[in-house]
Amino acid sequence: MTNRVFVTVGSTQFDKLIAVVSSPALLQLLHSLNYTHLTIQHGQSPITTPSSTDSSGIKINTYKYKPSLRKDMEGANLVISHAGSGSILEALRLKKKLIVVVNEDLMDNHQLELGSALHEQGYLVCCNVSDLESVLKAKEYDSLAPFPQPDPTRFSNFLDSRMGL
Question: Nearest-CA neighbor of 33 among 99, 115, 129, 93?
């Protein structure tokens, strides 16, 4: 059985996340959790792990950017993402198990607020880089609540009520 992890930093540079997910210790942990493939979208962050099969037995694929990350997200059993709203919403709408890693080096860290709020509602697991290994071991991501699908009538209903219709 193929179990895939997809890691994304979006358009940002998140060196600490890339260093941790490509480390031998984390690769071994992923293998022990029965993951067989790891795809890393690393943006401008340097990566030392080449696309290949690691000594842990995990098939690794890396790239900087693609026009769309949707295919990689669709094929993943687990998504590990930076805390950007676009990446979060895409993974949640695809009903993916999601671990969001907050980049604590950002100055105005609105990402922490978004990640924490969605974590409190049980839609994702939010952590910092130093906690990623323990979060993976705890497997809290296996019991997340499904994210509600958007209601396309909500806005029009709101407008109708405001206009007295």
Answer: 99
